[in-house]
């Protein structure tokens, strides 16, 4: 992979309420930039969306004269609401996600009975990405690494010495992503992480989430070398059988994410609510006894 930017600038933004990291990735010479996994604030009790966190990205872009070329989602998140629709009001750029979103939409369309309301062809996004697709955003050049397992649409994005891994790897002391959502597969996640582990040890790894213990600060960045040596779930010596067994046992005891019901409904529709009903109000559904 060739890129005129060998060491892209990466500015992380932490959404404390959900432990999520969003990123503005830029070429310091040309100021071309992409935004990865932006977050919209959501007050579940009131059913209200707020743009405070997304506005921090807008302010950063404006303050540094950056030219945003695209918004990338690593997957349709189940723990926070995407700010993509809000940010597209500021920047007329393409919104991209892994091609596996079609399978994710199909599964959750049935759960929420959205037939006839939600297109299940990925058309809400401007480009559906496949493994090894090239990414060209001005002087920023990269590639897609399909990393399914947590979800069918999970992708990692590599720009020169930086890779943005979504919900595949977490900080070494936290491990890896859960695989118990519809379409999740621990064996696929193991295979996906092995692809990431083929990258140079010095590759900067940027996480989508961190849930730190009380004795350390939240971590946005680690490295392939650190993950190989120290990841508590999957290091250089971990076998596929051992990983799958661990992941299945661990997932069986995990609670449903607090924002899964609203987040999934919005994020499979590119972060947007479905059309308003005849009273002018948009609604989210809560399926009973399904999760």
Write out key terms for the chains shown.
single chain, 291 residues, alpha/beta, Metallo-beta-lactamase, Chain A, six-stranded mixed beta sheet, 15 strands, 23% helix, globular
Per CATH, the class reads: Alpha Beta
The percentage helix is: 10-25%
Classify the secondary structure makeup into a structural class.
alpha/beta
CATH superfamily (homologous) name: Ribonuclease Z/Hydroxyacylglutathione hydrolase-like
As for the number of domains, it is 1
Number of helices: 7
Distance between the termini: 42 Å
Mean pLDDT: 96
Radius of gyration: 18 Å
Name the overall outline. Answer: globular
Largest sheet report = 6 strands, mixed
What is the N-to-C order of secondary-structure elements (H for helix, E for strand)?
EEEEEHEEHEHEEEEEHEEHHH
* Proportion of residues in β-strands: 15-25%
Instruction: List low-confidence stretches.
Output: none
The spatial strand order of the largest sheet comes to 1-2-3-6-8-9
CATH topology grouping: Metallo-beta-lactamase, Chain A
Q: What multimeric state do the chains show?
A: single chain
Please characterize this protein's 3D structure.
The chain has 291 residues and is of the alpha/beta class. It has a single domain (9-254), classed as Ribonuclease Z/Hydroxyacylglutathione hydrolase-like (Metallo-beta-lactamase, Chain A, 4-Layer Sandwich). The chain has 7 helices and 15 strands. The protein has helices spanning 52-63, 84-88, 101-111, 186-196, 224-230, 240-251, 260-267, and strands spanning 9-15, 20-26, 32-36, 39-43, 48-50, 67-72, 81-82, 95-98, 127-129, 134-137, 140-146, 155-159, 162-164, 204-206, 221-223. The strands form 3 sheets. Strands 1-2-3-6-8-9 form a 6-stranded mixed sheet, with helices on one face. Strands 10-11-12-13-14-15 form a 6-stranded mixed sheet. Helix 4 (186-196) crosses helix 6 (240-251). The longest helix has 12 residues, at 52-63. The termini are far apart.
């Amino acid at each position: 992979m060739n890129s005129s930017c060998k060491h892209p600038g990466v500015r992380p933004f932490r959404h404390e309420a959900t432990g999520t990291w969003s990123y503005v990735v830029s070429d310091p010479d040309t100021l071309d930039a992409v935004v990865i996994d932006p977050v919209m604030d959501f007050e579940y009790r009131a059913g209200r969306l707020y743009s405070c966190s997304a506005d921090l990205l807008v302010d950063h872009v404006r303050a540094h004269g950056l030219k945003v070329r695209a918004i990338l989602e690593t997957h349709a998140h189940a723990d926070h609401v995407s700010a993509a629709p809000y940010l597209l009001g500021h920047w007329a750029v393409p919104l991209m996600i892994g091609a596996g979103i079609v399978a994710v939409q199909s599964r959750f369309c049935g759960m929420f009975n959205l037939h006839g309301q939600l297109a299940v062809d990925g058309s809400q996004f401007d480009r559906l990405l496949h493994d090894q697709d090239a990414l060209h955003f001005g002087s920023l050049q990269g590639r897609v690494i399909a990393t399914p397992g947590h979800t069918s649409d999970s992708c990692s994005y590599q720009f020169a010495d930086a890779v943005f891994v979504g919900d595949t790897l977490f900080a070494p002391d936290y491990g890896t992503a859960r695989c118990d959502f519809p379409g999740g597969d621990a064996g696929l996640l193991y295979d996906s992480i092995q692809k990431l582990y083929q990258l140079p040890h010095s590759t900067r790894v940027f996480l989508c989430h961190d849930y730190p213990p009380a004795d350390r600060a939240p971590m946005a960045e680690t490295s392939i070398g650190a993950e190989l040596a120290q990841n508590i779930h999957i290091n250089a010596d971990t076998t596929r059988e051992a990983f799958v067994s661990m992941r299945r046992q661990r997932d069986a005891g995990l609670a449903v994410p607090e924002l899964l019901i609203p987040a999934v409904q919005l994020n499979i529709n590119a972060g947007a609510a479905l059309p308003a009903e005849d009273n002018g109000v948009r609604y989210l559904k809560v399926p009973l006894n399904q999760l």
